Structure formats: C-alpha cells, structure tokens
Amino acid sequence: MSDTQKTFYITTPIYYVNDAPHIGHSYTTILADVLTRFHKLAGEDTFFLTGTDEHGQKVQQAADKAGVSPKEHCDVYAKRFQDAWRDLNIGFDKFIRTTDPEHIAYVQGIFQQLWDRGQIYEKEYEGWYSVGEERFFTEKELVNGMDPISGRPVEKVREKNYFFKMSAYQDWLLKYIEEKPDFILPDFRRNEVLGFLRQPLNDLCVSRPKSRLAWGITLPFATDYVAYVWVDALFNYRSAVDGKVFSGGAPVWPADYHLLGKDILTTHAVYWTTMLKALDMPQPKHILAHGWWMFDNARMSKTTGNVVNPMSMKEKYGVDVFRYFLIREMVVGQDASFSEEALVQRMNSDLANDVGNGLSRILKLAATGLESRLTPVASVGEEAAALRKAAGEAVAGALEKVKALKLSFAIEDTLQLIRAVNRYLEVKAPWKLAKEGEAGKGKLNTVLYHAAEALRIGFSLLHPVMPSKMGEALAALGVEYSGVLGAEPSITSLQWGKFGFSRPLGQGVNLFPRVENISGHAAGKSKAGGTLTDGAAPSAPVDPFSLVHLKVARIENVEDHPNADSLYVLQLRIGEEARTVCAGLKKHVGKEALLGQDVVMVYNLKPANLRGVESRGMILAAESEGGKVLPVSPEGAASGDDVKATDTPFAPKADLTLKEFEKSPLTVKSGLVCYRDRPLQSPRGPIRAQAADGTAVR
Length: 698
Ligand code: MSP
Known about the structure:
Radius of gyration: 29 Å
CATH topology of the largest domain: Rossmann fold
Bound molecules: 5'-O-[(L-methionyl)-sulphamoyl]adenosine
Helix content: 25-40%
Structural class: alpha+beta
Number of strands: 33
Number of helices: 19
Largest sheet: 11 strands, antiparallel
CATH superfamily of the largest domain: HUPs
Distance between the termini: 61 Å
CATH architecture of the largest domain: 3-Layer(aba) Sandwich
Oligomer: single chain
Shape: globular
C-alpha cells in the first residue's frame, strides 16, 4: 500500500455502562460502520473505534446497588454492547474500555504532562455538586435550587480540586472554529458552539477527591484524587490509537470524524479541543453532531424510558432492514422520528418493490432454464447505453454524497439506478423474448446482462448499508469478488463490465418479503387507539381515512404509457424520494400543463402493475366544471409535505388497497377538497380543486 493511500479514522462516543444498548447508541454505531464500509469500498485504509465509558459515580452507585464490584458490573455491560454490535453486523477495529490498563496508563501520562506544563493548578472550591451530572454548578446556573439539567437536588460541597486552564484557550478556540467552517458540523451546531464561546469561559475542574468517588483513574501527582470522568473518557480517542499507524505508515491520529449526539457537543467541541491544544496535539478533522431519534415526538432515551429496543426491531424485520431504515430515514444532523410503520413502509417500498423486485425478475427468467449464466455483451441500443450511463452516474453521485455525509441522498441515487433497471425490464419485456425460444436468446442475454450488471453495481453501492443482504443478492447474481461468491465489493466493483458473472444465477431468492401488517408489536398501535391491521380494533372502529397517507408530490417527467392510450407515466418527486405513477389524465390535460406541477398523491397505496408499468401510488384528481379531469392543487405546499384532514386521526397503513382507500369519500366543497366536511390540508395551506360542490375526488 502506498504512502499516498487515503486513510479514514472514525469514532463513536464511548457508551456509559449504566444502560442497555438502545436506538441512540445503535444509530451512531451503525452510522460509523456504514461510513467506514463506504470509505473502504472507495479504496481507503480505515480505522473504526467504539467502546465503553466505565468510570464515574453512576457506575459506582449501580454496582453498589447490584452488590457487585464496579469492575464486575462493567464487564457485564461491556459485553452487552459488544454482543449488540456483533448482532448488528458492526465491523469495528477496536473496542476500547476505559478500564483497560493501557488506557489508564495513557490518561495518567496525559495528566502528568498537563501538570508539568503548568496547565493544571489546585484551588479550594465551593459549589453546588450534582451527583447525577457528576459536576459542579454555580449558584446562578441552578434552576429553583436544583440541577438545571436533571432537575434533581444538588449538594453544597467545599473541597480542594485540580483545574485545567481552559479559559486561556477561549480566544484561540473561537478563532479556530471561525476559520474552519467544516470543523464542527452541521453549520447550525457550529453556530451554537460559537455563541457559547462568546460568553466567558471558566476553567475546568478535572479531579474528584477519592473520599467522594473512588471509581476512577488516580491522578499521578495527587494520589487521593481521581480524574474527572469526561477527561478520562475523551482521551479514549487518542489512547486507543497511541503509536498506531495505517498500513501506508501514516499515523492514525488525528481522527477524521468524531460522531456524537448533539447533547454531548460541548464536551467535544470545547473541553476536548482545548486540552489537545494545551498538549500541542493535532485537532480532529471534523466533529459531527447528529440529531435525536424521536418517538411520538418525545426524545427517546434512558431518562424518559421510552426506548425502542433495537434488538426487537432487528429480530422482527432483520438486521439489514433496521440498518437501512436508520440510515435512510435520518438526514445527518437533523432529528428524525422512529416508528415501526415508517420502517415497514420503507421496507415495502424501497426494499421489497425496488431492490428485491429487480433481482427476482432476473432470477425468475433464469429459472426457465434459458439463461442460467450471463455472458457480458456490448451495450447495443439506446436503452442499454442509457442504463450503463445511469450506473456511472449513480456511482459518482453516491460516492460524492457519502463524502459530504449525505447518506440518505446517496441511497436515493442508488435506488434511482435500481428503479431504472426495473423500468428497463418493463420496456424490454424479456419475459416475451423468453417465449421466442432460440430466436430470442441473443436479445434476452443482452437485456438480462445489462439489467444484472446495473443491479450488481447498485447492490455493491448498497453493500455498506446492508452487508449481509447485499452479499446474498450478489451471490444470487453469480458474482465473485476476489474469487469469493458474494464477497465484499471493492472500488473496481463499481466499474461497468469489470466483472463477469462467473457462476450460474441463483434460484428462489426472496430478499425482502413484503410485510402486510405489523400487529403484535407495541409500536404498531396508532395514537388513535386502533391498531394498523384490518379489523383488529373491534371496540373502537377505525376511521378509514386515518389509514390513508396523502403527500404532496412534484411532477418531474411525463411520458405516454407504452401500452395504454389513456395513461401517462409520471415521474414524481416526494421530498427526497422518486416514484413512478400511472395516471389516467391523457385525454384531459397536456403534458406541458402537468410538468413541474405539485399534486397530491395517495402515498401508501399498494403498488399495482398497470399494463406492464409498476405504479406506486395514485394522484388525486376531480372532474372540473368543463368536464376535464384535473389534479387537485396543494396551495403553497412543498413536495414531501403530508396532507391530512382536519380533526382526523392519522395512522397510515402499509400497502393500502384501492378498496380501503375508497372507503373514505373525498368531495369538493366551495373549491376545497374535503373528507366528510373536513378540509384536507398540507402544513402550508388547503387543497383546492376547480370543481362544483359535491364533485368526487379520487
Ligand atoms: N459516555 C458519554 C460519551 C463519552 S464520549 C467521550 C455518553 N454516553 S451515553 O451512553 O449516554 O450516550 C452516548 C450517545 O448516545 C450520545 O451521543 C447521545 O447523543 C446518543 N443518544 C442517546 N439517545 C439518543 C437518541 N434517542 N437518538 C440519537 N442519539 C441519542 O454520553
């Protein structure tokens, strides 16, 4: 490996050993894993660190309560985290525990250096101490005399302690962050840190007397004190890679990314950076604060107790679906809401319909015995060339977006490619060629080869997110990387035509079976009191409209349906998502009038094959006074907005049937589209239709 090879060192926070692994921990760790796998795929040498934060008062108290030693308590929890990461297919390079002897020695060395450099001084201090937060607050910071973070009581404590001269670095840090716009990400979090730094900054108390807390790292220059747990914890990022180099010889430190939740940004952006500066150590390249997973609009965490156990989702839907959902659903930096319904919807639409469908169509044809193994051929014909071009664009787009941490958008680029394969198969109809026997064989191979090659590239791009399912998918296509069926892809795997299909196509692989209902799980209950399965709530009849999910979509392309005179094939954009929908509007409205328009669609309608084109949703239209059928119009709304009826519960069901949709009569009243007298609206305004009162909308 050459010296110029790119390297990538990423870290997660080290997790407290007072809680079982939950979705918050799982998200950060999966994100780090996916980023690492992508960087590996791009040919970089990577190092991925995670671990557990094992010292401090809370651990000591938990161990006392359980009647075990702190170390015994830590061993149990550290193993739980390791097991959880193994189950979620996380490929970390090192799992650090702050009770590791090497880490303890390293932190002691750091304290000694700070002491020798005159960066630490001792001082008698009196303040309000919070056991829960393990820190002092000033009188001013208290809220009603209580800890301002946890709301719990505080104790007045007077003691001698050791302080790090953090305030001396305030101006330096302010300037450093101002000059490096991508040091703290996203931008709005960077601004918060800058705002914080424009207030006076105190020195940091970095010790705790053993008389109060014995479970910690002993300070080398004051043996009746232990290190403040945050200082101990932050140095894990350095101690874990002390003296370590990448295979090309470059040192692993500094980290490319510290990933963390927004609640622990200050400790990383201020304590960590100033301590590194005081030691003349290089700064990490980026600190990325991600948002929180919310559940029924509340933060999901140990404090509120409403934690969705990631393992239960993993068991119910599979590890890869869970990983996919977390990475696809959260725009890095923003909060996102977790619900089982949303997970199932993603699984059915993106994974079962797009990804799984493409593969199973090819395998079904192979099962007829006509093409058991694909032979590479040149891209003859416009469509084949277009597919090849789309594959190149997906690779370039996805890799660029991964670099910018826009993972959900990178996935979207890949799905576009997979959807293009499905459209190509619909247009080329290889099932018809198969019926032509020997005569159609050459053409059949061309079609199947192109579809399979584009899928191979798509699956390789999705591999970092869903390593085991994509391994299975590649194996089913007969792809060998480095001579191993279904092995991890590398950068050359992303090139068209670099790999033959060296084994016969597999059979009977159903990667992502559709889930028709989600009963039997607490998260499946809607707020309205009904469950999301048909007829499962006998005592409280479900309002049929609560099951309907309407969304605003923008029409990005209009084409004639190849096999039906009255239909258009529309390409819709719904927020970040793209979909194909057929609409019976051809006799009523010209293509130009539709292009670029915002419309309202039934988003959760079960996909239907309309004369060879898969339609995923339906757009709402009403017959105008002139007898034309025109789409209804969402005033001022943005693509992706939800559309709901006033005062109606909202608990959409995955794969709504047309029959179920028709149970909710929609009509026009004074120009507004209503469900039983209740106007439909997006968050930005009502939905209008130029039609007479009483006109049906569907
Ligand atoms: N031990 C410290 C970190 C020290 S790093 C030098 C710690 N541990 S923790 O176990 O409490 O939490 C770790 C991470 O989980 C934080 O980044 C936090 O933001 C994240 N999450 C906890 N609940 C969360 C959600 N509901 N959603 C997303 N992440 C959240 O803090």
